[in-house]
Amino acid sequence: MTEILVQDVPAGGAAQGARIIEHPAWPTLKNAVEEIRPWQSADGSIDLTAEGAPDRVAVIAALDHVIDAVEALSPLLPHDAAYHRALVDDLHKWATDGFGVPDFLDSLLAFQPAARRQDGLQHLVVFPMYTQNGNPDRNLEAVALRMVWPEWLAELERTRYDNPLFCGITFEDFTSGYDTNSAVLFPETIAVREAPERFTWGGIFCDREAARFRRVTDAAVHVLGLELPEDIRELVRDQTRCEQAFVLWDMVHDRTHSHGDLPFDPFMIKQRQPFWMYGLEELRCDLTAFKEAVKLEADGFPQGRDVQYAVLFDRMFRFPVTGERVRNYDGLGGQLLFAYLHQHEVVSWTDNVLRIDWDRAPQVTQQLCAEIEKLYRDGIDRPKLVHWFAAYDLVASYLAPHPGSRWAKGPDALDLSKPPRKLVDDVLPDEFPLSMFYEALAKKLKHVIASTKGITAASAA
Fold it and tell me: Which residues partner with 173 through β-bridges?
C-alpha cells in the first residue's frame, strides 16, 4: 500500500518516518533471532544440558545482539518505548533464568498498539510465540510492521463498527515463523507465565490476506472460465484496493464474534465442539461482514462492493482447497457457501464454465446468513447436543456427509450416555468430504495455493 511517513521527531532526533528495516540494526536483529530459534524447544526454552546443545556463551552472545538491536531501533519508534524497555528486561530475565520456558508477560502488557491507531505507524515486535497457521512452537520472532488505519475506516469504527482492540497491519519484514501461512498477530500466542485478565489488541496482516486472495482468485477465474465484471477485474489487479477491502472485512468479522444471538462462548474458548460448529461461526462472521458491506455500498462506500466479492471469492475459491482435510472448518464454510449458491441457482457449473448471477448473489448470500442466525437464535433455547445436531442438519442440507459418518445416522447411532464432548470423538476427521467439483479444483490450484506461503504485497508484485 502507499507508504505514509510519520515525521514525529523524538528527543533523540531520529525521524519516526524512517523505515526501521533500512536501519543496519534490523538485519542484525533478524540474524540473531534466526540463530536462536533452532536452539529452542517447542515450549520456547533452550536446554543447555542436552546432547548437541549450544554453548551458553554463544547463546548469550546471540541474545545480546537481539538486545542491542532492539535498543538501536527503539528511538525510531518512541510510541513503543515502554514496550521496548520491558522487552529488554524480559530478554535479560530469560537469560538469568537459564533460558527456561520464556515469560514475556511484562512486555506483552506494555505493548499497546490499539491505543494509538495511526495510519502508517510502524512497530517493532519481538516475542517468543507460535504463529497461527504457521509455526506451532513458541520460538523467538521479530516482526516489523505498519498500522493500516485510514480515516474512512477510523470513522466507520467510531460510528458503526466499534472494535477498539482491532489493528489492521501490514508486514515490513519478519523472521521465519511468519514465512508461513500465518496472517495474524495475536497476544494469546505469546509465551507468558499466566494469561492476562483481558487482551487489549489483535492484529490482522491485510497485505498478506490481499496478496494471496489476488493470486488464488486470478488462477481460479482462469481455470473456471469465469467472466468478471470490469470493476471486479480491477479489484483483483489492485493490491492497495484489496488491502482496504480486507481491513474492513476483518474489522467487521472480528467484532461479530461477540455480537448477535450467541448460544455459546463466542470464541468457543476451552470448549470441545464438532468442527462444523467452528465452521459455522467463522462463516457467520464473514457473512455478517458481507451483509454490512451491502449496506455500505448503498451508502456510497466503494469498499463495500469490494468486500462482498472478496468474501465470495476467498470463501469459494481459496478456503475449500487450502490446508489439510482434517477438521478443516474454514474449508467447510467455503464448501457450504458454494453449495448454497449453487443450489439456489446463483452459481452454475455448466459446460466446464463457472457462471455467477451477479444481481442475485447479494440477496442469496444474505439469505444463508439469515439461516445461520436463526440457528443461533434457536440454539439459545436448546441443550448443547440438540444444537449440535441442528447445526449438522443445516450443513447436511447442502453438503453430503461422509457415507461412514455416525453423526449422519442420527442420535440413535451414538452413545448418548456419554457427555457431549466425548461424542466429538465420533466425528470423522473429514466429516463432509470435498465434492467432485472441489476435488478437481484442488488439483488445478494446488501449486498456486502452495506458492502463497509467506506471501506479502512485495513478493506478490
Answer: 144
Instruction: Output the CA–CA distances (angstroms, integers) from residue 110 to 137, 200, 275, in the order listed.
Output: 23, 10, 35
- Cα 4 to Cα 8: distance, rounded to the nearest angstrom: 12
* Pairing state between β 166-174 and 202-205: parallel
Residue 81, amino acid: A
CA separation for the pair 243, 211 (Å, rounded): 8
The number of beta carbons lying within 10 Å of the beta carbon of residue 447 is 9
Closest CA to 156 of 301, 25, 344, 351: 301
In total, the chain counts a number of residues equal to 461
Rounded to whole angstroms, how far apart are CA atoms 44 and 140?
Answer: 7
Question: Rounded to an integer, what distance in angstroms lies between the CA atom of residue 143 and that of residue 205?
Answer: 11
- Tell me how far apart the alpha carbons of residues 346 and 362 are, in angstroms, rounded to a whole number: 10
pLDDT of 145 strictly over 70: yes
> What is the pLDDT at residue 460?
82
**Is a pLDDT exceeding 50 seen at residue 342?**
yes
Q: What is the chain's mean pLDDT, rounded?
A: 94
Which 8-state DSSP code applies to residue 193?
S
CB 388 within 8 A of CB 273: yes
d(CA 251, CA 331): 21
Cβ–Cβ under 8 Å, residues 254 and 204: yes
Q: Which ranges of 97-238 would DSSP assign to H, the alpha helix?
A: 105-110, 151-159, 206-224, 230-237
Amino acid type, 195: A
User: Helix 384-396 and helix 275-298: axis angle, to 10°?
Assistant: 70
How far is Cα 234 from Cα 329, in angstroms, rounded to an integer?
30
First-to-last CA distance in the chain?
11
* 3-class SS of residue 358: coil
Q: Which residue has the higher pLDDT, 8 or 19?
A: 19
Say if residues 124 and 84 touch (Cβ distance below 8 Å).
yes
Give the contacts of 268 (CB within 8 A, at least 6 positions apart): 277, 278, 281
Global pTM value: 0.93
CA 424 to CA 17: how far, in whole Å?
Answer: 52
pLDDT digits (tens, 9 = 90+) for 302-311: 999 999 999 9
Diameter over CA atoms, the chain: 73
26-30, 32-36, 272-276, range with the lowest pLDDT: 272-276
Predicted pLDDT of residue 459? 87
